[in-house]
């Protein structure tokens, strides 16, 4: 193999081709030549927020898709020198990603991580364990079961004897790690569907005979999943994949705080009963994606019990709030759920790719359990017997590390800081004459919009006719979208946006800014600056004129 210096020189001289010959095993070509990537690692992984704030990073236009740059579909024939590829990655890719670890990036659920995480992730990648089976994961199988058990106890609070009996029982499972909330919701509803239409009276069970035979045997005209209108779109995918049909994901209306209305839920269930549609699950949301609203879980649990229905809680975002003694009361009733989804890659501050489903009853996976002769054999403790996914990485190690290094207290501090920041920001918005708070934060998410004073006055005035009111709302929607896009392009800070039915405006769907305050480094000064920037951008927006026109008499 050639010396590193010679390789790089060759590489430059041949337009990026590494002229090393095909000597030796390709996997070992870089055994002595990793310098370029180690340098990148130092510049990025050791302090991502610093990288995002550095001259190496180019925030403006970061949302552009850069399709022209990624247009070629020709597979590289020749090896590229590591330095050339590292330079390419830095200049053409990494410097144009989104600065999610930046404290001014407050628009999405993806935030910064504890500083030890990149090093740990590197170890996990290097070990390359596959937790689908014991033979490729060793101690990690037990570790993952333990972590699932810790989260199970956080939700359900069962006693020591329960965990002594079930935690490592190969035929049972307290839950499973998944790629994220989407697969976790699907896994929960998969288990629920198979349990509902299980084998009995000579019928082999839905898992073997399929949905059509199962409906015929049980005498139902269809299945439904019931969730508030604020349910995450992953539930729509689950309804589709499970053969239930997207139209049978039945939405229930929400109250002024975005929480499921239990009176409407009862009505929905009666209606389904009359149509002979069996609700496969009622889903309560513990931290809705758009506003962080927490459904009245205890009351929903009562209804689920009355209708003998599976109660699933989507706590993908909010679940970590259970760590906070101060805040967990909002989730009263979650312990009555048959299944719960919590994402580790959200408020447990673990890198992307880690969600979890938890089952109250350890026997709940009996109707999804799988076997194969070369792997996940009968009687084995292989995790893959109880999971939707096959090969999986050891994401549990990262949650295990956060649980130990930050502890419940440290994680609760992060949760409480986010909620405190959201309350502060809501108060700040309410003090402004030209901003309107749309959703009061229950967790660390809130929505609001910019409404110039003249527009606020026009909307508040009973003398404003309905047509002008609607024209003004449309102009405000356009202004909100424009400000959000201008702010994103400017690259100093980032908020997201959504369209939500607003109880303030008689159920009209309005465009709003959406803020997720999960980064503890987001200061009050940053939040003040975000409003100042939005006000300034509004002044420059071409959409402001229409707002002002419809605001004046
Ligand atoms: C409430 C809720 N459920 C499910 C999901 C899906 O999670 P993921 O994107 O990890 O698949 C999300 C994601 O934002 C969510 O907010």
From TrEMBL:
InterPro entries: Asp_decarboxylase_pyridox (IPR022517), PyrdxlP-dep_de-COase (IPR002129), PyrdxlP-dep_Trfase (IPR015424), PyrdxlP-dep_Trfase_major (IPR015421), PyrdxlP-dep_Trfase_small (IPR015422). Residues 1-22 are annotated as: Disordered. The modification N6-(pyridoxal phosphate)lysine is found at residue 346. GO terms for cellular component: cytoplasm. Gene3D superfamilies: Aspartate Aminotransferase, domain 1, Type I PLP-dependent aspartate aminotransferase-like (Major domain). GO terms for molecular function: carboxy-lyase activity; pyridoxal phosphate binding. The keyword Lyase applies. The keyword Lyase applies. Belongs to the group II decarboxylase family. This is Glutamate decarboxylase. It comes from Cupriavidus agavae.
């Amino acid at each position: 193999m050639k010396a590193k210096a010679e390789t790089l020189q060759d590489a430059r001289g041949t337009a990026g081709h590494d002229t090393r010959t095909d000597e030796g095993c390709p996997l070992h070509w870089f055994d002595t030549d990793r310098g370029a990537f180690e340098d990148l690692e130092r510049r990025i992984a050791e302090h991502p927020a610093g990288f995002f704030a550095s001259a190496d990073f180019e925030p403006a236009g970061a949302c552009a898709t850069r399709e022209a740059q990624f247009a070629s579909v020709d597979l590289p024939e020749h090896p590229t020198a590591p330095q050339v590829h590292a330079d390419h990655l830095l200049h053409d890719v990494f410097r144009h990603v989104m600065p999610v670890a930046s404290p001014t990036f407050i628009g999405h659920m993806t935030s910064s991580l504890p500083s030890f995480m990149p090093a740990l992730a590197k170890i996990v990648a290097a070990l390359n364990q596959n937790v689908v089976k014991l033979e490729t994961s060793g101690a990690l199988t037990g570790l993952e079961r333990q972590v699932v058990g810790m989260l199970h106890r956080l939700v359900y609070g069962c006693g020591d004897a329960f965990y002594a009996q079930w935690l490592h029982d190969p035929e049972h499972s307290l839950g499973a790690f998944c790629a994220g909330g989407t697969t976790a919701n699907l896994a929960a509803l998969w288990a629920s569907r198979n349990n509902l239409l299980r084998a009995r009276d000579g019928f082999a069970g839905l898992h073997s005979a399929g949905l059509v035979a199962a409906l015929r045997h049980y005498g139902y005209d269809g299945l439904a999943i019931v969730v508030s209108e604020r349910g995450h779109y992953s539930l729509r995918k689950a309804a589709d994949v499970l053969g239930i049909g997207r139209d049978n994901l039945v939405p229930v209306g929400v109250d002024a705080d975005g929480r499921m209305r239990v009176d409407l839920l009862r009505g929905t269930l009666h209606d389904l009963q009359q149509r002979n549609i069996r609700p496969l699950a009622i889903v309560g949301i513990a931290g809705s994606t758009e506003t962080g609203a927490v459904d009245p879980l205890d009351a929903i649990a009562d209804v689920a019990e009355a209708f003998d229905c599976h109660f699933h809680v989507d706590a993908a975002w909010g679940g970590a709030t259970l760590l906070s003694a101060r805040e967990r009361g909002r989730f009263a009733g979650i312990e009555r759920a048959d299944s719960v989804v919590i994402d580790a890659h959200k408020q447990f501050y673990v890198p992307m790719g880690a969600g979890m489903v938890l089952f109250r009853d350890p026997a709940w996976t009996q109707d999804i359990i799988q076997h194969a002769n070369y792997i996940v054999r009968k009687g084995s403790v292989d995790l893959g017997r109880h999971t939707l996914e096959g090969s999986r990485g050891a994401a549990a190690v990262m949650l295990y590390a956060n649980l130990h290094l930050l502890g419940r207290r440290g994680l609760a501090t992060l949760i409480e800081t986010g909620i405190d920041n959201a309350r502060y920001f809501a108060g700040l918005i309410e003090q402004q004459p030209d901003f309107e708070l749309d959703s009061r934060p229950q967790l660390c998410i809130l929505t609001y919009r910019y409404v110039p004073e003249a527009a606020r006055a026009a909307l508040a005035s009973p003398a404003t006719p309905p047509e002008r009111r609607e024209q003004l709302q449309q102009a405000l929607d356009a202004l909100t979208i424009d400000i959000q896009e201008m702010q994103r392009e400017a690259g100093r800070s980032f908020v997201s946006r959504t369209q939500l039915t607003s109880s303030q405006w008689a159920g009209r769907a309005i465009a709003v800014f959406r803020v997720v305050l999960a980064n503890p480094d987001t200061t009050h000064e940053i939040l003040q600056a975000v409003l100042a920037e939005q006000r300034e951008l509004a002044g420059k927006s071409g959409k402001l004129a229409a707002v002002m026109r419809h605001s004046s008499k």
